[in-house]
Amino acid sequence: MHDLASRLQTLIHPGDHLWWGQATAEPLTLTRALVAHRHAIARGGRFGVFVGIGQSDTLQPEHADVIDFFGYAASGPHRRLASAGVLDIVPSHYSHLPGLIRHGTLRADVVLVQVSPADEQGRHSLGLVHEYLPAALDRARVIIAEVNPEVPWTHGSRYLTADQIDLRVEAECQPISLERSAPGPAELAIARHIAGWIEDGATLQMGIGNLPEAVVAALHDRRDLGLHSGAVGDGIAALAEAGVLTNARKSIDTGIGIGGILMGSERLRRWAHRNPRLQLRETAYTHHPEVLASVDKLTAINSAIEVDLTGQVNAEVAAGVYVGAVGGAVDFLRGAARSRGGLPIVALPATAKGASRIVAQLSGPVSTPRADAGLIVTEHGVADLRGQTLSQRVRRMLDIAAPEHRAGLERQAHALLRQCGAAFVALPGTAPTD
User: Which residues form the Acetyl-CoA hydrolase/transferase N-terminal domain (predicted)?
Assistant: First the structure.
């Protein structure tokens, strides 16, 4: 480790901005060495680290003594950074990140990347991830690769060869596995509601968490489903192995599932290894608006912290703390809305710790505007907001709120409609108040 520290110190300069794969794609041997020897690497100065979705406890608030943390997400363990006030948020659509990197707006001086062993042609696969890494690799002065024999060799749009790598190290850690807990009653009910809308031949996009995995598990009686998603979990491998996910009816990339990052367990890694029916692609493709619009029956399933009665979505802030991200939800919801037969879906349990997650006024920022709202789903049903007026939306949203919160939400709805400039339309069972 001391030798690795000295080599990192040689390659990384004070003031550099560092990037690496997020979540399961974090190169743990390199990132742990980086934070352990950060003072020697900083040499009396500071350096920056881009923070994506967190799945390890590598980064801690005390590391801000020499590291400047900036990023688009504060999920998982990275919430500690946000809570401590040491994470500078980039409130960007996920699809914008590659362009911001390539234009130099977001600097990428050094990239730490976890790769598979080389294939017969000497190509190291990026393994578990593409996402924004190809853009960062294109701009980087230094590429440091951690070769992990447990990382699958996956087909994609970008590989690395020995001459492109400035420092190669052997992994001392297993890849991060993401195990999902069993879904609860609310998640199972939501999954059943969503599954009832998904037809044979639909192409799936899933957000992150237990809920999308519960939806996927409810689709084993479908045929010829497809994949075009940023995140890919264990449930997709299970659908493919059951012969449900074939990609046979996809209008583009026929026969091939498209993903940005593998976020699952060893089962997912085994299924992905040298699988010609799976390709990992960079964000510039997975989230491109024209690409998404050309995917027929694109079913985009994303989650939220709260949704207001008109369809505005907060996916970033809970109880005053930044816990999420703008992410790719807007990209996929807009893409699904333009897709022929597409379904833009936001799903969430109706309550959290007794509080309603269907609200009259958001407690955080508007991550997804109400103009992009499609189907909002809770365990109590589906509110299809497409083409609905504000008062019609309120009615439908009240129907999927938790019953114990509906009366209070109805009372607030009148003031909300006036604030929105909507013509007043009496709500069922209520009377207008001055």
Answer: 10-166
- E strands, 126-210, are 142-147, 155-156, 159-160, 167-170, 203-206
H or E element in which residue 345 lies? strand 343-347
* CATH T-level fold of 2-170: Glutaconate Coenzyme A-transferase (3.40.1080)
Give the closest residue to 260 by CA, choosing from 413, 133, 428.
Answer: 133
Question: 0.70 cut: is pTM over it?
Answer: yes
Return the bridge partners of 145, or none: 113, 168
H-type helices in 13-132, by residue range? 28-36, 38-42, 79-83, 97-102
| CB atoms closer than 10 angstroms to residue 249 | 17
Where in the chain do CATH 3.40.1080.10 domains reside? 2-170
The Cα–Cα gap between 110 and 100 comes to 16
Identify the CA nearest to 282 among candidates 136, 164, 104, 140.
Answer: 136
Mapping DSSP to helix (H, G, I), strand (E, B) and coil, where does residue 23 land?
helix
Please say if the pLDDT value at position 107 is more than 70: yes
Query: Which tokens hold the place of 257?
Result: 């599932």
* Domain covering 185-419, topology: Glutaconate Coenzyme A-transferase (3.40.1080)
Question: Tens digits of per-residue pLDDT, 182-224?
Answer: 899 999 999 999 999 999 999 999 988 889 899 999 999 999 9
What does the alpha-carbon distance between residue 296 and residue 212 come to, in Å, rounded to a whole number? 20
d(CA 242, CA 227): 15
Spatial distance between the Cα atoms of 48 and 303, rounded to a whole number of angstroms: 30
Rounded to the nearest 5 degrees, what angle is found at the Cα of 292, between the Cα atoms of 240 and 73?
A: 85
User: pLDDT tens digits for 345-354?
Assistant: 999 999 999 9
Q: What is the pLDDT of residues 367-390, one digit of tens each?
A: 999 999 999 999 999 999 999 999
